[in-house]
Amino acid sequence: MPTNLPPEYFKLEKQLRDVQTTSEKLEIMDEMMSVIPKHKGTDKLRADLRKRISKLKTAPQSKKGAARKESAFNISKEGAGQVVVAGPPNVGKSSLVDALTNASPEISPSPHSTWNPLPGMMQVNDIQIQLIDTPPLNPDYIDKGLFDLLRRADMVLLVVDIQSDPFQQLEESADIFRNNRIAPERLKHLYENEPKMRFLPFHVIANKTDSTEFDENIEIFDELLEDNWPYLAVSAQTGRNLDRIGDIVFQRLEIIRVYSKTPGKPADMTAPFILKKGQTVEVFAANVHKELATKMKTARIWGQGVYDGQMVQRDHTLSDGDIVEVNI
């Protein structure tokens, strides 16, 4: 069966012969994949090209005698939570992380401009949450370190491009996660008989809603989205709805801020302690100091559901924004 390749393919093939570096070769081969028509006549060509891409990406790791290095994906948690920003190529992950944090990822219209994960800190009210920009999800090859990182994370922001078949992007990404034993927390009941699954809060970020021209795309996405995926339509380019991401992440992490107060002094409102929802005064005291939890008798609370300075016991459940004064 004829392949009917477009002229662009042959131009890229010629360019490929002239370049030397791995990154240049991979960039051109990715472009070649994108211009090859999808039909039975090109199945073998596409399969061969995928093998070449995979071999090129894995070659540096297989060199004998290479010094063993710590994985770039071994990123220590900082702030109130660690959130991985993941998604297919060219959906705008790096632009989002750049807009939301102090990180400066490389931003490029070409696919695979992100080779290693890059952390940054997102300010949410008076706390910071760690966002990590990651290499794109590619069914042909993904560094296994990415899934090690994901399994340690607290949440996933799954980015899709509202302008370019977001349903297929979402489906393919979900398949990649599932094949690597990672799934949304809300679908835990579907995996009762599958061991070693890691369940995380997922939130879909429908990026590139850059103008009202794409509002209809959002409506269609909302109407046809299955499995109750929670999502937010944003634009990293214009800033549309970016201010809502921090609040969503805060809520999905199920954390609360608790402030400490020393008897006879004003509360310290500059550095809250971060606890999980449902945790108690005793847990708060242990976070301040291990001995404090042992020695405490009662505590006074300012906040939700109590009157100012109300005396409570160590098993009192705390709420976001509570101020606690421990009595010993």
Describe the global form: elongated
Annotated CATH topology of the largest domain: Rossmann fold
- Cα(first) to Cα(last) distance is 83 Å
For the record, the count of structural domains works out to 3
- Report the major sheet: 6 strands, mixed
Let me know the number of strands.
Answer: 13
Mean pLDDT: 88
CATH architecture of the largest domain: 3-Layer(aba) Sandwich
Full CATH superfamily name of the largest domain? P-loop containing nucleotide triphosphate hydrolases
User: What is the oligomeric state here?
Assistant: single chain
Helix-strand pattern: HHHEHEEHEHEEEHEHEEHHEEE
Radius of gyration (Å): 24 Å
Report on this structure.
By secondary structure, the protein is α/β, with parallel strands linked by helices. The chain has 3 domains: 7-60, no CATH class; 82-253, P-loop containing nucleotide triphosphate hydrolases (Rossmann fold); 256-327, Beta-grasp domain (Ubiquitin-like (UB roll), Roll), CATH 3.10.20. The chain is 33% helix and 21% strand. The protein is built from 10 helices and 13 strands. The strands form 3 sheets. The chain has a 6-stranded mixed beta sheet with strand order 2-3-1-4-7-8, sandwiched between helices. A hairpin with a 7-residue loop joins strand 9 (255-260) and strand 10 (268-276). Helix 1 (7-18) runs antiparallel to helix 2 (22-35) and helix 2 (22-35) runs antiparallel to helix 3. It is elongated, with a radius of gyration of 24 Å. Residues 61-67 have low confidence and may be disordered.
